[in-house]
């Protein structure tokens, strides 16, 4: 799943996939803007058929945080 998530992120920010790890900070390491993060969230919702609550977005700091959110949401479906 991490590789799929990295591919989604790379659709919206200019960074090479091999530069991204689970520990990568979305803002500091990857350079994602708030607009990028919203687009990434929408794409995650589409791909994984989950809902990303708006109140959870500020809590997502790393790629690993997104992966954990997806795992939690898909486990409860």
Task: State the main characteristics.
77 residues; mainly alpha; Non-ribosomal Peptide Synthetase Peptidyl Carrier Protein, Chain A; 3 helices; 0% strand; globular
List the helices and strands and how they pair.
Elements: H1 2-12, H2 34-48, H3 63-75
Distance between the termini: 17 Å
Radius of gyration: 11 Å
Number of domains: 1
Number of helices: 3
Helix/strand/pairing category = mainly alpha
- Would you tell me the overall average pLDDT? 92
> Unreliable runs, pLDDT <50, ≥5 residues?
none
CATH-defined superfamily:
ACP-like
Helix content: 40-55%
The first-level CATH class is given as: Mainly Alpha
**Beta-strand percent range:** under 5%
Write a structural description.
The chain is an all-alpha fold and 77 residues long. It has one domain: Orthogonal Bundle (Non-ribosomal Peptide Synthetase Peptidyl Carrier Protein, Chain A). It is built from three helices and no strands. Helix 1 (2-12) packs across helix 2. The two termini are 17 Å apart. The model has no long low-confidence stretch (mean pLDDT 92).
